[in-house]
Amino acid sequence: MSYSFEPIGLVHSCFAEKFAIPRQPQLAPAARGVLELFPPYDKPEAVAGLEGVSHLWLLFVFHAAASGEQHLRVRPPRLGGNQRIGVFASRSTHRPNPIGQSVVRLDGIEDGRLLLSGIDLLDGTPILDIKPYVPYADALSDASNTLAEAAPAQLVVDWSEPALQQARAQALRLQQPVIELIEQCLAQDPKPAYQRPDTNREYGVRFWDINVRWHYPQADRIRVVAVEQ
Amino acid sequence: MSYSFEPIGLVHSCFAEKFAIPRQPQLAPAARGVLELFPPYDKPEAVAGLEGVSHLWLLFVFHAAASGEQHLRVRPPRLGGNQRIGVFASRSTHRPNPIGQSVVRLDGIEDGRLLLSGIDLLDGTPILDIKPYVPYADALSDASNTLAEAAPAQLVVDWSEPALQQARAQALRLQQPVIELIEQCLAQDPKPAYQRPDTNREYGVRFWDINVRWHYPQADRIRVVAVEQ
Predict the structure, then answer these.
(1) CB A60 within 8 Å of CB A11
(2) First to last CA, chain B
(3) Which of A4, A15, A136, B159 could crosslink B164 through cysteines, CB 3.0-4.6 Å?
(4) What contacts 24+ positions apart, CB below 8 Å, involve B201-205?
(5) CB contact under 8 A, B143 and A54
(6) CB nearest B5 (choices: A2, A45, A134)
(7) Domains in chain A, CATH or no CATH each
(8) Which contacts of A211-214 are long-range, i.e. CB under 8 A and separated by 24 or more positions?
(9) CB contact under 8 A, A46 and B8
(10) Residues B113-123, buried b or exposed e (16+ Cβ, 10 A)?
């Protein structure tokens, strides 16, 4: 028996590609997006009461996950990419049913739109459901997880002077916290954990409509070298 | 565009009917169940690593929710059943996409089976996904929800002497914490919040294969009067 679901909306997000999306939401508070609700869910009735709610769970489709062959085990990046664990012990996007679950901050409610931050969703992500975060039920004080005991260590991110000026200009143009977004996402170290970076090699990613380029002057340090539309 | 998902397993649960299921998981730690994984997910590889994880998120289908007409607003029982809020501000089972999300305790891992407690799932619930609870990402310390600020107030539950003896016998037969299960679930007050109970009226529910009957000697007190197979 299979179950069929129609998206109730989609997310317009700062993340134009999968690379450099934080591994968990909340790691980049400056990552913003807008959830556009489809009719009839764009009516104010459907979200009445959310004014009193600080955070939402979004259930969504990993629409850009490779479909291909199913594996029962995955290599989570945070375990260095060489240790395999069961897919149900991981939050991998490559799952038997590619449904994601993210907690995001609700910053505002407009006509048929929810303004979000702290997101880890790719632009265009189809949303299946929205549920209010219920602190007394969802924030467990006695839970433990030895595979992910704390947020990943962060790299130091610094800037070339031209890149910082470019970022300031893009922030003004987009009216978005571009500098914070870049610092928070790159501090998570987007490259695969098993890659030892050549100090000259440049990496790049697109946030909104801007291309960000950086390199690793040391293994634990990132320097942003260009931020261009 | 619609998305189709096949269950990866189903839950065998103490809750034989919807009535008296706690409104959030964790409210009844004695509520136990077994998640039976379907092939190929019943292989040990699929859950390797879960030994280090105390709690799981289950994504599931509200398979017994009435399909009928869609409403954008619902009357949550905890608001007394007479205040309507948007469906996306509630955890109601009557949702545009009837997908549920529950956090449960993982008590053990057997061949193709996960032993669970603190569940709020109806017997036979189809499971779409299992994800590990990640405390640093899921347990938000700064979240607020004015619609559900604390766990609901609990009623006092006491027993007629014959009912308590019956419950002890059923607990032995089923090898389940039947007394705790009944006390924890009835303390949530299963009846609709807007009903003022006649002190003589008897209510009943089935847990596992046993029928539990109680009445309300006072509005805030439950007396269990029978526990019979």
Answers:
(1) yes
(2) 47
(3) B159
(4) B205/B17, B205/B19, B205/B20
(5) yes
(6) A2
(7) 9-138 (2.40.30.70), 156-228 (3.30.2310)
(8) A212/A182, A212/A186, A213/A163, A214/A157, A214/A186
(9) no
(10) bbebbbbbbbb
The answer to whether A36 touches A8, Cβ cutoff 8 Å, is no
Cα distance from A177 to chain B (closest Cα, Å)? Answer: 21
Which of A111, A86, A112, A87 shows the shortest CA–CA distance to A98? A87
Q: What is the pLDDT of residues B185-224, one digit of tens each?
A: 999 999 877 778 888 899 999 999 999 999 999 988 999 9
Length of chain B: 229
The alpha-carbon gap from A61 to the nearest alpha carbon of chain B, in Å, equals 8
A109, A112, A114, A119 alpha-carbon torsion, rounded to 10°: -170
CA distances from A60 to A9, A122, A129, A184 (A): 10, 11, 7, 23
Distance from CA of B141 to the nearest CA of A (A): 7
Binary contact (B145, A52; C-beta < 8 A): yes
Residues in chain B within 8 Å Cβ distance of A49: 85-86, 89-90, 147
B137/A103 touch (CB, cutoff 8 Å), yes or no: yes
Question: Is A52's CB within 8 Å of B132's CB?
Answer: no
pLDDT digits (tens, 9 = 90+) for B114-168: 999 999 999 999 999 999 999 999 999 999 999 888 888 899 999 999 999 999 9
Collect all residues with Cβ–Cβ distance below 8 Å to A110 and sequence separation of at least 6.
none
Q: In chain B, which residue's Cα lies nearest the Cα of A37?
A: B88
Is the complex ipTM higher than 0.85? yes
Q: Packing angle between helix A178-187 and helix A161-174, nearest 10 degrees?
A: 120
Q: Which residues of A touch B106 (CB under 8 A)?
A: none
Rounded Cα–Cα distance for residues B2 and A128 (Å):
10
